[in-house]
Specification:
Blueprint: H1 14-40, H2 45-52, H3 54-73, H4 76-96, H5 100-114, H6 117-128, H7 136-161, H8 166-183, H9 202-205, H10 208-237, H11 242-253, H12 256-266, H13 271-294, H14 298-304, H15 308-326, H16 332-362, H17 364-391
Helix pairs in contact: 1-7, 1-8, 1-10, 2-16, 3-5, 3-16, 4-5, 4-6, 4-8, 7-11, 10-14, 10-16, 10-17, 11-14, 12-15, 13-15, 13-17, 15-16, 16-17
């Protein structure tokens, strides 16, 4: 006799795989080619950078808003449908706005619905595989596949139909993604997010190692945002096609899963080792930006993006492990949110604005030289942290409330 608490049959979760494939495919097309659409519409690099900076800025408010409503409704599927419908409607205003002011207003509203979508999609997966959390990676990997496949396919297609028809491509895939969510069986999910506790917050918020780690992370992440925002423009400026842009995005992501698996399996979890690894990854960032500044052919740019798999993937994975080492268990959820906030939110605003200004006034190569300098400062800073932790045998307290540290 079948128990009502049994997990949903695998066949009923096929739309969940399709959803992840399509939603990640939609977003990679937007993030990789929208800048080219704006340039085609007459915007310069600084205007494009300021417009794209709205995404991380709006996300600072959008994330808590949608998280609160998701917790209240206890229905991630419904929240996602609202967000996707809002995104679908507002993308029409973004592409058909007749003035810059209307574009900016439409983008603010668009990012309000779109920016937390990946976080909510992960919550949706966890809700359907709650009794078998090890299956999360299987469903999440379909998003990575969609990201890579859509990037290459969209580049080829846009070269044929023209960048002016980008809105039709994004709209069509987003409608299909909404359809896959509608096919999912209704399921209310209980929130397992640990509450944010303010007691003892200052023990890590003002810890010199945590603050240093956060500030150095911003320095390293700002050039990464510059690259994500302006790489497509840099490729076309050197004579590359939209297909080349898609190839560059594909190469930047297709090995990321393998890199994360290797880090998880072989990386030693001691704090000095982790911080030393951050210093090494920051050096790789430096090499990456120097190569980008010196390249003269769009294919070289695409090949350099392979380094993204180990630089971005490695930094974010190791960074989450460092946070867990530096922060008491009761505050780890809050600290991880703060880490993500600084990496994608604050750095996103700075990187888009500063990158746009440098690109507009001094060119793409100078922008990447500036990125090299910022990453080098970050690498030196992490190297100093590693030296202190290793040679002074200093281990920041991870538990101020008498709790045992969580196993990593």
């Amino acid at each position: 006799m079948c128990n009502v608490q049994d997990p949903v049959k695998q066949s009923k979760l096929l739309p969940l795989k399709a959803f992840n494939f399509l939603i990640y495919g939609t977003m990679v097309i937007f993030t990789s080619f929208f800048q080219l659409y704006l340039q085609d519409a007459g915007m310069n690099k600084l205007e494009i950078g300021s417009l794209m900076s709205l995404g991380p800025l709006v996300s600072l408010f959008a994330y808590p808003f949608w998280t609160i409503w998701s917790d209240r409704l206890q229905n991630t599927r419904r929240i996602l449908l609202i967000m996707m419908t809002g995104t679908l409607l507002l993308i029409q205003f973004v592409f058909h706005a007749s003035t810059y002011n209307m574009v900016y207003l439409a983008m603010i509203l668009f990012f309000f619905f779109q920016s937390p979508m990946f976080a909510q999609s992960n919550t949706l997966i966890l809700g359907y595989v709650a009794d078998k959390p090890q299956k999360f990676g299987i469903f999440r990997n379909w998003g990575s596949i969609g990201w890579a496949v859509a990037a290459v396919s969209a580049g080829l297609l846009i070269d044929r139909i023209g960048i002016s028809r980008l809105s039709f491509l994004i709209t069509g895939i987003l409608i299909l993604a909404i359809g896959t969510v509608l096919l999912l069986p209704p399921r209310k999910t209980s929130s397992e997010t640990p509450p944010i506790r303010l007691r003892g917050f200052a023990h890590f918020a003002f810890n010199r190692y945590f603050v240093s780690f956060t500030l150095l992370g911003i320095l390293v992440s700002v050039p990464n945002v510059m690259n994500n925002t302006f790489m497509s423009l840099y490729i076309t400026e050197l004579g590359g096609s939209k297909t080349m842009v898609g190839l560059a995005v594909f190469l930047s992501s297709f090995l990321e899963i393998a890199v994360l698996v290797l880090f998880h399996r072989y990386l030693k979890r001691s704090l000095p080792t982790l911080v030393g690894c951050l210093a090494l990854v920051s050096v790789l960032f430096c090499i990456r930006w120097l190569l980008m500044a010196s390249t003269a052919h769009p294919l070289e740019i695409a090949l350099i993006q392979v380094m993204h798999c180990i630089t971005f993937g490695g930094y974010f994975y190791v960074g989450t492990q460092v946070v867990s080492q530096l922060v008491p268990p009761v505050h780890r959820a809050s600290a991880q949110s703060l880490f993500t906030l600084t990496w994608s939110g604050i750095s996103g605003v700075i990187g888009s604005l500063v990158g746009g200004w440098f690109y507009q006034n001094f060119g793409g190569a100078t922008m990447y030289i500036m990125g090299f300098m910022l990453a080098m400062i970050g690498a030196i800073g992490f190297g100093v942290m590693w030296y202190w932790l290793r040679n002074q045998s200093h281990h920041p307290k991870t538990d101020t409330l008498g709790e045992e540290p969580e196993e990593l």
